Amino acid sequence: MSSLAPALKEQLKAERQNVISAFEADGNPEKLLARLRKNVDAALIKAWQAFSFPQNVTLVAVGGYGRGELFPHSDVDVLVLLESAPSPELQAKLEELVQLFWDIGLEIGHSIRTVDECLSESAANITVQTSLLEARRVAGSRKLFNLLQERCDAAMDPRAFFQAKTLELRQRHVKYEDTPYSLEPNCKESPGGLRDLQVILWVAKAAKLGESWRELGERGLLTATEARQLMQKERVLKDIRIRLHIYANRREDRLVFDVQTPVAETFGFKTTETRRASEYLMQHYYLAAKAITQLNTILLQNIEAQLFPQTTPAKPINERFNEVNGLIDIVRDDAFDVTPSAMLEVFLLVAQQPELKGMTARTLRALWHARFNIDQEFRRNPVNHALFLSILQAPKGITHALRAMNQTSILGRYLPNFRRIVGQMQHDLFHVYTVDQHILMVVRNVRRFLITEHAHEYPFCSQLMANFPRPWLLYVAALFHDIAKGRGGDHSKLGMDDARQFCESHGISEEDTELVVFVVEHHLTMSQVAQKNDLSDVDVIRKFADMVKDERHLTALYLLTVADIRGTSPKVWNAWKGKLLEDLYRMTLRVLGGERPSADRELISRQNEALKTLRLYGLPPHVHEPLWQQLDVAYFLRHDASDISWQTRSLYNKVDSDVPVVKCRLAPIGEGLQVTVYTKDQPDLFARICSYFDRKNFSILDAKIHTTKHGYALDAFLITEPDFAKNYRDLINLIEHELAQLLQSSDPLPAPCKARLSRLSRTFPITPTVDLRPDERGQFYLLSVSANDRNGLLYSVANVLAKYKINLHTAKIMTLGERVEDVFLVDGPVLNNARNQIQFETDLLEALKI
């Protein structure tokens, strides 16, 4: 055997490379899978023949290999079938055989069993039963193999097998987030993946309904069109999986970020001005997975109907639809051809009657085929306009109906521009959903503001929504706010035109059309103002108020902004951003109500509120004066009353302290810690503080930098770290002690470290940008930076500021998933010299680089 192994190994290796080369030339996945399987068959037969096994032993291929499909790096699963328990000599021979399989370079999964043992294992384990269902004889006794098949067939309970496999399917879907639109899908196991197709064929084969898509078609479970669609989509996924294996040079079924671009390039996808090559690949994948999910539902229902016939009589809903076992069923097969508007009416029923669990396979199939009838004439029909608006205006089930419309491709057919963004991935480092799923998530978020059971989540939004006239207009705005993504140009402007066209064609009043168009056009504006501008600046509030014009526009924009940010990624929204948006809303509302923005009025209001809190703590009436006399108007406008009172309580008797004072508390809003630092000012103070937070792996969410009239720094930070909630008391004591000690040190600043980036940031790096320009008054400079997020990034910026002796007045930290967009208000002599300013920006860009 020693000479056989190297020869077979080299032969298999050469044949495998030839097969891969042929695939790279012709791109035929079925040919590759079949040729790889045949090559392995030939090698196993040669190895088997070298041992001269008895006549009552059989080598059986099981699993995917048994099915006749072998991907480049898939396991080769085999069963050695015996008539009876092996003798010691046979056992030794079999062990030598398995070792030879490994020696020739195969990833072998093997078992050695008698027929009785196979039946016993099969009864106890559904995976073994499924594997035997696809058994294929490779070598040895045909009679013994036929006996195994006969015994397995006799033991098979198609109903129990169907229930077990569909339960397994549901559990697997939950494991993979119950969506085909995962950022890094598993093309084999995720919903809409190859495994879903295999489940169909397994349960069909177990029920003797067919073993291929063609046979299922012959039995009436599939139409010719559906069979063709399934074969096309199956081919897409097989093609992707093959390329994954070849690129990774190992078994790899996940489309992880690292491989998306190189795999996309093997398909010929190219990066364009508007989209990455990987985004084209992922849309290719998502569209296939979506179709498989839809057809899978139809097929499983059809097979279930064959296995579990129902005799419950149909209950009429109207002349076009019945209720059958809690599902909507069409009265006649050509219902959608006879009455095309019923394609929208059925979703109105889904929304109006939430007790209905969905649609029958018959209805889904008819919808699937009739969707091509949605043309320009259909879209111009006033009856269909009324039905679509009725869906949006339904008291319940709107989100459910829209998602079902998207899953069945009706929504994309009715709104052609929506169809263009179905399955379109956004590698902008903060969206974690495809564009269509993000849009539907935003609709859901807006909708939840109206649902009583969810009022506790965002009480202020729920209160505003409850008093908002015609809230369905916000659903329209949500549908169109990102509909122009990937077209090139400003998607807000392009989406605004789409929204106007929709509103006008659907008979929405001029006033309501203007509101929808305004919200779509400005859906990014409010978050940018709240997170990048100084909300203590009365000019910022006045300018924003002039843009929104009235309370209705302000409320609509605020509600969509909250819903939009929440719909990008679970990581992007936090309570701090919520507070900034709510503060901007309330301040703007006062201006719209006729109140003239006044720094003096706001100053007095906040001071009075802070004094009330101080009295509640039993402090003497004038205890605040020594500290407040050293603070200017800007300090009081940048801090709310609770912060002012807390800092006053902490510092009133330490106004001229010779040692740094550090105080820390739980943030009143959301998760995190508030840290106040009070010490004599020094040029590198901000950098020194950031170096401490960097070393401790804290994320800085916000920073307010202030210098008192007598030369002390009063800086406030909002920080967080992954596990702070578990040990926040210890963290508070640690920060107060360690940071105060550090600030007494005169050691040089440590060099910023290049922290490790996430896989997403490594795979989709963004080009860092630095923008430095004078503010509107010409008193300070606004410094805006954008880069991939990483630990220590803010310290890297602070280090450059310290190097150039630039004074920092405020820092607005905005983290968008894996991307940061920070804005600083700065000044310093170096910025008044053009050459020095260019060198400063160059050094800052270098610090931001990955």
Give an account of the 3D structure.
- With 850 residues, this protein is of the alpha+beta class.
- It has 39 helices and 17 strands.
- The strands form three sheets. Strands 9, 10, 11, 12, 13, 14, 15, 16 and 17 form a nine-stranded antiparallel sheet that branches.
- Strand 2 (76-82), helix 4 (88-103) and strand 3 form a beta-alpha-beta unit.
- The longest helix is centred in the middle third of the chain and has 31 residues, at 277-307.
- The protein is globular, with a radius of gyration of 33 Å.
Can you give me a brief rundown of this structure?
With 850 residues, the protein is α+β, with helices and mostly antiparallel strands. Helix content is 55%, strand content 11%.
How is the topology of this model organized?
Layout (H helix, E strand, L loop, with lengths): L3 H23 L2 H21 L7 E5 L1 H5 L8 E7 L5 H16 L4 E7 H10 L1 H8 L2 E5 L1 H14 L2 H18 L18 H13 L6 H6 L5 H25 L8 H10 L10 H31 L7 E2 L4 E4 L2 E4 L4 H4 L3 H11 L5 E2 L1 H10 L5 H5 L1 H12 L4 H10 L2 H5 L1 H5 L14 H14 L10 H8 L5 H9 L10 H15 L4 H12 L3 H8 L5 H11 L2 H16 L8 H18 L6 H18 L8 H4 L4 H6 L2 H11 L9 E6 L6 E8 L4 H11 L3 E6 L7 E9 L7 H16 L15 H5 L5 E6 L6 E8 L4 H11 L3 E6 L2 E2 L2 E9 L6 H15 L2
Parallel strand pairs: 2-3, 7-8
Antiparallel strand pairs: 1-2, 1-4, 5-6, 6-7, 9-10, 10-12, 11-12, 11-15, 13-14, 14-17, 15-17, 16-17
Helix pairs in contact: 1-2, 5-6, 5-7, 8-9, 9-13, 11-12, 11-13, 12-13, 13-16, 15-18, 15-19, 19-22, 22-24, 22-29, 24-26, 25-26, 27-30, 28-30, 29-30, 31-34, 35-38, 38-39
